[in-house]
Every structure is written in C-alpha cells, then in structure tokens.
Amino acid sequence: MSLTESPISWNISTWYEEGETYDSIFGSLGSSYEECRAECVALYLSDCSSVLSIFGYEGDEALNITYTIWLDMILKGLEGLEMYDPKTDTWLQAHSQARFAILQVVLESGEGFVKIEKTTGEDGKPDLLLTVDRSKIINVGKPAIGKFLGKLQLYRCTANIKSAKEMFDKYSLVISEDKHPFLDYREIVMDRKKPRRMFVQANTAVEDGAVKLRTYASDTEGLVESWIDRFQDVNIEAILEELWEKDRGLFK
C-alpha cells in the first residue's frame, strides 16, 4: 500500500457496533496509532499563519518555526529506533513507533524531500546525516502527511482495524533489505545514544529587593540542590501528612 498510489476509498463497509469503542477495536495498536494521528495533525497545521501570528511569529521567523517542527519530528523518527527491539520485532514506546511511521511516509514522498545518508563522524565512527529540504515542506511533505492523516482518520472513525493495521504495520516495519537499511541505522543510533537529559527547575529568590533567578547544573547534584532551595522554608512533612489525612478515607 502506497499513499501515492492508493487513494482513500469512501466505500464504507465497517463501523462501530453498539458497545464497541476505539480502544476495544484497536486494542494494542491503539496507543501508537493515536499518537501518530496527533503528530500528523501537528505537522499538517504547523504552517498555519493565523495561529503562528497569535504568538507573534510572522514572515521568516514563522517559516523557521515550521521548518524546525518538521525537522525535529523527522529526526525523532530516526532516533526513535532505539525503542525498537529487533529480537522480538516490537516497539517499546508508542511515540517512537508513531514518529518512525511518519519518517517512512515522508521518505516515501520522494522528490529529495528527506534524505538519510551514512557518514563518518568527526570521531571516526559511523554516523547518519539527515537532510530535510525546507523548500519542499509545503508542496511535498504536507500533501504526503495529509493523505496519510486522511487514512488514519478514516480507518479510526470507521472501526476499520484490518486496513489500519495493514497500513500501520507497513510503515512501522524495520528491515535492512531496502533503500533505507533501518536495522543498520539502528546500530548507529544505539551507538550514538546519549544519556537521558535531566531537566532541573530553576528557582527565584528576592535578593537586595530584586528578584533573582537561580539556575543549577543539569545533574543529580543540581536536582537535589534545586529542591533544597525550593523547600528550605517549607514544612514538607506537615504538608504531606495533611494531604494524606485528607485522602485517607479514599484508600480503605
């Protein structure tokens, strides 16, 4: 099934029977499928000038934001290979599978819109170069995502799990016998995997009559220091005990 070769059929032959829901019909596929649908909506609407202008972004700045959204989504599709287990042929995270499917769709759109090339990094180790042609986002990328989103929505709304699974399995397939050897790419992605980022919240404090921002190192020590500063004048034990007492009757 190719998005460029197979138009959406409006011959509806499936629907939700009484008592059936999206979760009951789509089951284990549901989470990844829905995440993919949501991400596609974000991509498709990312160039909406009327929305971007609400936040003060217009002209070249708005175009840069649209490009960044597409580039980030496609990059996450490639990086998400770390959440694929080749031993069991399963995806370990819904978001990663969804974004990989999107990566496959934009690669299929052709016309040099998205390219993945094997390279050698500055450290001499294998690396990957991802290229997204920003001039083709509107004319190539958006129509491809639009057709894909249309099918995602149609199959979801008509309880067509057979067609949905057939399509989604195709775009979730990780193999090496193809133009893009994703199993080989995965080895490079795993080798380049970075430690998970630690987001440490800053604090504010009044010093000499002025509000000062206190920042901390993005490590375990910085995290602990941030919490100590935030709650040094607060009786945490009393607050937790009060909350426990309040909810006590709900846990019998």
From TrEMBL:
One Pfam family here: Peptidase_M49
GO terms for MF: dipeptidyl-peptidase activity; metal ion binding
UniProt entry keywords in alphabetical sequence: Hydrolase, Metal-binding
Cellular compartments per GO CC: cytoplasm
Origin species: Trichonephila clavata (Joro spider)
Name under which the protein is recorded: Dipeptidyl peptidase 3
